[in-house]
Amino acid sequence: MLVAGGLAACGADAKLVDGKGEEPPPESAAQLTVSPETGTEEAPVSTEIGVEVEAGEVTEVVLQPEGGEPVEGELRPDGTSWVPSSPLEYETTYTAAVTAVDADEIPVTTETTFTTMASPGNQMFASIWNGSEYEYGQATPIMLDFPREFSVPEEERANVERRLFVKSDPPQPGAWHWFSGNHLEYRPQEYWQPGTVIEVRAAIGGMPLGGGVYGEADITQTVHISGTARSVEVSNETKQMVAMENGEVVKTMPISLGKDSSPSYSGTMIVMEKLAETVFDTTNEPGCNGEEDGEDCYITDIQWAQRLTWSGQFIHSAPWSVGDQGVRNVSHGCVNASPADSEWIFNFTRVGDPVIVTGTGVELPYGDGFTAYDLSWEEFLEGSYLEPPDTTQTDDD
């Protein structure tokens, strides 16, 4: 009787859950899977926290080493993984707790614990060509190089590309192009907008690069694009060089291009380096036998030289051909201009400015210089191992 009375006193609608008068929390509809799997050992220090979620979205990722502080990082834009902001520590155990919520904001959390590998013996350093101390022209590609003796295997190139992060302000989607297994260039669809600031992170520290080789360290760089858009147009038809600024003609100058036996290339080239004084020495080229002999084997002091190709085409001062400039082609492939005009254009341009040469009948060879913009956007994308970027977005999206 005492027991029955006790039950009646609870009320007809009362519920008893686990011995407590409380409802269990509702289950989230979100289904969450994370990687690497719990218990994974020998994980690279470039490991990302993979995320697969159904009927929900990820709201938080906390990655923490045993006894240490949480690691900084962020989700990829496509939400497929969470990327640490720097390489993890070698021989360290980490726990990742990933939280997602469903449409009703009900959370679910999944954890995984893994241990990273020991520091590998075969590590490879890479470098970003662009520096932060210089304002580049609008056609500057971001360039990443591995040592010449190393080539990233084709089956690893998509993985490498996914670890190369480029953010620009204002936003301009772009892509990477592999000119070889050790040289990549990145560009947007059109030239960089004036004043663009580009943040680059090659997150390859501890990353497997193929063939038992690992990246030595992450590389970061900030690249600045000039606030003024400048370009140079060179016409074989008119024998004139035109300096453009923000789409307007600034100065027109007579020039001489390459003669028939050594024609200039046509294409979109980029100012690669600027040398106020240098020496052109062709005596080591085939047929010269290390000696000055005739007009094609020479050692000559040159002023106001701007390199356009690796093979040796420049804009430069040529006082010996002033009488030919604007009339006929007499150079060995370079753009010859008067001393005064060469100095003027030297001071006008920056490394990274485009130089568009037309009408010579000989196309610029692939990869002879910074040739990213000599390719159409479609051709450029063919050199990437990832899906093309979405170039339809605007700053208001």
Explain how this protein is built.
The chain has a 5-stranded mixed beta sheet with strand order 22-21-20-28-23, with helices on one face. Strands 1-3-6-5 form a 4-stranded antiparallel beta sheet, with no helix packed on it. A 4-stranded mixed beta sheet has the order 2-8-7-4, with no helix packed on it. It is 8% helix and 38% strand. It is built from 4 helices and 28 strands. It has 3 domains: 86 residues, Immunoglobulin-like (Sandwich); 105 residues, Immunoglobulin-like, CATH 2.60.40.3710; 136 residues, L,D-transpeptidase catalytic domain-like, CATH 2.40.440. A hairpin with a 5-residue loop joins strand 7 and strand 8. The longest helix has 10 residues. The N terminus is likely disordered. The chain starts with a helix and ends in a 16-residue tail after the last helix. The protein has 397 residues and is mostly beta strands.
Quick tags:
397 residues, mainly beta, Immunoglobulin-like, L,D-transpeptidase catalytic domain-like, 3 domains, 5-stranded mixed sheet, 4-stranded antiparallel sheet, 4 helices, 28 strands, disordered N terminus
Please summarize what this structure is.
The protein has 4 helices and 28 strands. With 397 residues, it is mostly beta strands. Residues 230-358 form the L,D-TPase catalytic domain.
CATH superfamily of the largest domain: L,D-transpeptidase catalytic domain-like
- Assign a percent range to the helix content: under 10%
Assembly context of the chains: single chain
| Cα distance spanning the termini | 71 Å
**What is the number of independent domains?**
3
Which class best fits the helix and strand makeup? mainly beta
Largest sheet: 5 strands, mixed
Which consecutive residue ranges, at least 5 long each, have pLDDT under 50? 1-16
Strand order of the largest sheet: 22-21-20-28-23
